[in-house]
Amino acid sequence: MDAHPASVPPVSAAPRAGVRLPGLGVGLGRGLVVLYLSLMVMLPLAAVVAESTSGGLGAFWDSVTGSQSLAALKLTVICSLIVVAINAVFGTIIAWVLVRDEFPGKGAVNALIDLPFALPTIVAGLTLLTLYGSDSPFGLDIAFTRVAIVVALCFITLPFVTRAVQPLLMEMDQQMEEAATSLGAGGFTVFRRIIFPNLLPGILAGVLLAFARALGEYGSLILISGNIPFDTEVSSVFIRSQIESGNVAGASAVSVVLLAISLTLLIAVSLFARMGARR
Amino acid sequence: MSTPTPAKWGLRTLAFGYLGLLLLAPVGMIFYKTFEHGLGPPIEAMTSPDALHAIWLTLLMVAVAVPLNTVFGVGCALLLVRHKWKGNAVIDGIINLPFAISPIVVGLSLFLLYGTDGWFGPTLSEWGIQVLFSTPGMILASVFVSLPFVVRETVPVLQEIGTEQEQAASTLGANAWQTFWRVTLPAIRWGVAYGVVLTTARVLGEFGAVTIVSGSISGETETLPLFVAKAFEQFNEEAAYAGAIVLALLALTTLLLMSVGGRKAKAQGGPIPITGDAAISTSNKKEGS
């Protein structure tokens, strides 16, 4: 996971005295950083948490387990799981082709992988709708179905696994594979016993990040999913509809659930990274 | 490695097929749809007062949010890398938060702070400051969602370059500012630039958070992504496609800069962690070693 573990200079190389943060005292700098993060990130999030329980824990629980919000949560989690599984397979294949295969235009394809990060999500949704909507030139109309949600989420999470696996593949020692092959292992055995275990940390890290992203996605879904309650309404869309109908506490309660899930994932990723770095 | 040819072709087909159907074909299709009837209609759609205002407002978001997060990002990265502190791990974790939070939740959180019944809303409106449904709220939303990028890209490069040159500079009598401008900043510039490109892309395209705090009033608080969504919902497909094309062209420019900047940052020693390493706590990596 850590692409350059050996190149991080040891901490002791940093002088205790000496110039590091220019112009400002370290304490002042730290104060400003904490102030900025508090104002921009922590206070707003605190407001969501406070609002979610403003009617007591019972009301919080009722909002989360209401039939419409539960249906939305279930749909969001299930779609995200499917998307992440697709990503794990295709992300790894794409990484493999980009690292081990040689073909003209490889640089361009490699750059293309980042397109979903660069392209605004609303544009992503619109592009998918033009090709797979009611005017589809293939006659493939998936608009306003759950399939559309999966496709849109696949689009926006495409880079995560590929970008996490690529550096691992590049660093991998091909002698292991050659040794296995010379000992008579077939292509699939080499993959299962040697390549896959080496790539697993990258795949898992990519999968966790993609899952966190998919859970909260909004922009690419609103045009293509149809936002039909109990059918194609994901949690972020549900939250939006609750805000618009004035049920801010209910919206906050579901937000807190989403926050809790993504926070857990984030902690998992960083623990994971620390384990990888130590190894 | 000698993958047998059929396997190689199979993998190639799968990879290209997936990318083609998911990325290339849809994006190609929207270009086709936009320019189906020539250049006239999209240009006309993009020069309407509402469209021009949306473009202007989007650029304003970039002009305010990107410098704010860049100054914060470089300063914060310096603190995280060069000054050991118990609180660093916490700061590091908070910086990663916006990556994991739904843009809708970001919008809701600002709504709760600055709305008419919000924590700060009433006081601020007494002072005559309107945050929600106007530019300040939209800027806050943009800052929130794009906050991590510069820090994340600068930290690895800073770790990489070490402190020897800075020590040499200060030994030779340079003061802190001189050392920063003449030694540190030139050394980390590609990492910072890459972070700035990512921040810009995110601010340009932000939809979910801005949609809640802006109220999406045409010609007033409508950025280009909001303009696209509204045009499409009002069956003004020409304008929606034209707006999407403007955003897509901006994205392609970003992509170009990303691949150049990413390569340079990498050549300088930093990884390109927009994904895999993005949420990985870099300061801890160092403390653990």
Structural class based on helices, strands and sheet pairing of chain A: mainly alpha
What integer value in Å does the Rg of chain B equal? 22 Å
Helix share of residues of chain B? over 70%
Radius of gyration of chain A using CA atoms only: 23 Å
Average of per-residue pLDDT values of chain B: 85
Shape of chain A: globular
Q: Which spans of chain B have pLDDT < 50 for at least 5 consecutive residues?
A: 270-289
Separation, N- and C-terminal Cα atoms of chain A: 11 Å
Q: What is the beta-strand fraction of chain B?
A: under 5%
Biggest interface, chains and residue tallies: A-B, 121 and 122 residues
N-to-C series of helices and strands of chain B: HHHHHHHHHHHHHH
Shape of chain B: globular
The major sheet of chain A is characterized as: none
Main sheet of chain B? none
Give the proportion of residues in helices of chain A: over 70%
Number of helices of chain A: 12
Q: If you average the pLDDT of chain A, what whole number results?
A: 86
As an assembly, this protein is heterodimer
Task: Explain what this protein looks like in three dimensions.
The complex is a heterodimer of chains A (279) and B (289). Chain A has helices at residues 26-52, 56-65, 67-100, 106-112, 115-118, 121-132, 146-171, 174-182, 187-216, 219-222, 235-244, 248-278. The N and C termini of chain A lie close together (11 Å). The model of chain A is unreliable at 1-19 (pLDDT under 50). With 279 residues, chain A is mainly alpha-helical. In chain A, 73% of the residues lie in helices and 0% in strands. Chain B has 289 residues and is mainly α. Helix content of chain B is 76%, strand content 0%. Chain B has helices at residues 5-34, 40-46, 49-82, 88-100, 103-114, 121-126, 135-145, 148-161, 164-171, 176-205, 208-214, 224-233, 237-267, 282-288. The two termini of chain B are 33 Å apart. At the A-B interface, helix 1, helix 3, helix 4, helix 5 and helix 6 of A face helix 1, helix 3, helix 4, helix 5 and helix 7 of B.
